[in-house]
Amino acid sequence: MSQPPASPCIKKPCHTGEEKFVQCERCALFPLCDPVEVSGGQFNLIEGLLERRVPVAAGAPLFAEEEEFRAIYAISAGAFKLTLPDERSNEKVCGFSFSGELVGYSGMAVGHYPYRAIALEQSYVCEIPYQRLMDYAEKVPELRNNLFTMLSMETFHSHLSFTTLMGRKNVDQRVSSFLINLEQRTRRRGFDHPTLTLSMRRDDIANFLGLPKETLSRALSKFQQQGLINIDGRRLVLADYQQLLNTAGLPAAKTE
Amino acid sequence: MSQPPASPCIKKPCHTGEEKFVQCERCALFPLCDPVEVSGGQFNLIEGLLERRVPVAAGAPLFAEEEEFRAIYAISAGAFKLTLPDERSNEKVCGFSFSGELVGYSGMAVGHYPYRAIALEQSYVCEIPYQRLMDYAEKVPELRNNLFTMLSMETFHSHLSFTTLMGRKNVDQRVSSFLINLEQRTRRRGFDHPTLTLSMRRDDIANFLGLPKETLSRALSKFQQQGLINIDGRRLVLADYQQLLNTAGLPAAKTE
DNA sequence: CGGGGAATTGAATACGTTCAAAGGCCGTGG
DNA sequence: CCACGGCCTTTGAACGTATTCAATTCCCCG
Fold first, then answer.
1. A210-221 pLDDT, tens per residue?
2. Taking residues A227-244, what's their average pLDDT?
3. Is A255 exposed, middle or buried (0-12, 13-18, 19+ CB in 10 A)?
4. Of B88, B115, B251, the CB nearest to A249
5. Strand, helix or coil at A86?
6. For chain B, which residues make up each domain, given as ranges?
């Protein structure tokens, strides 16, 4: 397995073997990670606070629901599915997190993680221990300011995902809005290659959307046939974005 | 129309005529609203920062999407529906906000409101002008701390709503999880009367859930017949909460 | 008492789900 | 290098559920 870059900061999207590392500047954690200007010099979080690019093997949990909240994580490379226990299907997929995004932070106020996060592929995360972050924030107002900015942004984005995905009427709407959400988030983290890579299985997507996997499969096949998308296994290209927006019942103007 | 209480702070849920005012301590804005202890005395936000119980008439917008972000609002009494423009149905209901909850704050980081908020009934909101809040926060670290706590809580609750409502398979699941979400939020703001009041029309609920209103109506009738709920117009009692959780596909233990 | 919007009910149709089976892909071992 | 086996994904056909459109009832307000 290839190693993550040794340099302290990733200036542009880079690939080591299979893994795609997000550019640090595009990462949701960047406001914290970036050295802050403090009266009389710089204050660098990387020294002593941030644990960079901790590897998480495919299938391994980053944290489990109910586990004590200990750290904020940003995904540097890879992807995670977020799950809750569920008696009938044994797990309910309640979300996905991709590189450049924060994960688990919504448990901050209540002291435990609100779901389980499982790596979908070989992944790397940057970790800020929560208590240490708070201690530093106590001392460095600029840092607290950045923390605030970061959380506001996350709030906005999770709201955006919610309105994009919630209350879609039929299968076509649900599937296409999922694809659009995926695309928007991929762009945001700075990968502008037209080909998206689905790091999760069909099962997981179907579970998330509340559809049987067969129905999802049929919808994707139909979109393919209609020329809306180009899908081959886990490689996906949105061939007709405008028409896809239309199918999803979303406004034609980019909702980003 | 009855007037809001004249007292500066509402110590317990109170009713003036029709309106139910949430108890200040149960309000999401309370961390900011509550006088903070500062070295050498108290710092009271109510003086000079907070605009209390501004009335909003039924049907009137509190703010519109794309409007410049100017203030954080907490709902003191009443309820709002949150909508986005939509060509086919002319509006897409993307959420509801009830007394004790914040509304619109997710637009903070991007400088504009992310949706339109329309009062469903005569309502009252407490308003904190954003710029003034930031200025104060610059000076009073305790205030900034409380702001942070408040946002973390909101993040958690919006995540909870998301997982409760997202990806429910069939009509029964969607409708029952909506009712459960409603009940949880009503409890949270301190109203423990068994009867919930639906302040929105059936149309709005159906729109939000992505169902035709007829289908929603049928589901409610069926639940009624099965003894899960007791519904009469806009008055609703969840008669068998456990069974309702089960229908929704949610764990029996309270998800709160 | 009458009017009008909202909510419910009914019946035909369209849509999505289920169960069964086949196809494709990938890793392992011969 | 090819064959095998397992898992993931797709396809097929019958069934069940949700949507649609129309009609009726309910309820609030004039």
1. 999 999 999 999
2. 96
3. middle
4. B88
5. strand
6. 14-163, 169-248
B94 interfaces chain A, CB cutoff of 8 Å: yes
Mean pLDDT to the nearest integer, A233-249: 95
The residues with which A103 forms a beta bridge, in sequence order, are: A73
Q: How far is the CA of B218 from the C1' of D20 (A)?
A: 14
- Give me the helices (H) in chain A, please: 30-33, 130-139, 141-165, 171-188, 202-209, 213-225, 241-248
Convert B63-122 into a string of H (helix), E (strand) and C (coil).
Answer: ECCCCECCEEEEEEECEEEEEEEECCCEEEEEEEEECCCEECHHHHHHCECCCEEEECCC
Q: Is the pLDDT of residue B250 over 70?
A: yes
Residue A46 token pair: 């990387």
A69 in contact with B at a CB cutoff of 8 Å? no
Burial of A105 from C-beta contacts in 10 A (0-12 / 13-18 / 19+):
buried
pLDDT at B37: 63
Contact at 8 Å (CB) between B94 and B82?
yes
A14-163: CATH topology is Jelly Rolls (2.60.120)
A17's CB contacts (< 8 A; 6+ apart) are A1, A2
Does the domain at A169-248 match CATH 3.40.50.150? Answer given as no
Q: How far apart are CA A49 and CA B183, in angstroms?
A: 41
d(C-alpha A175, C-alpha A160), whole Å: 16
Q: Which residue has the higher pLDDT, B15 or B134?
A: B134
Answer for the pair A122, A1: CB distance below 8 angstroms, yes or no: yes
Question: What confidence tens digit (pLDDT) does each residue in A20-79 have?
Answer: 888 888 888 888 777 666 666 666 666 677 878 899 999 999 999 989 999 999 999 999
Beta-bridged to residue B80, according to DSSP, are: B97, B119
Q: Which strand C nucleotides have any atom less than 7 A from protein CB atoms? A: 6-11, 15-20, 25-26
- What is the rounded CA–CA span in Å between residue A149 and residue A199? 29
What letter represents residue B82's amino acid?
A: L
Judge if the beta carbon of A172 is closer than 7 A to nucleic acid strand C.
Answer: yes
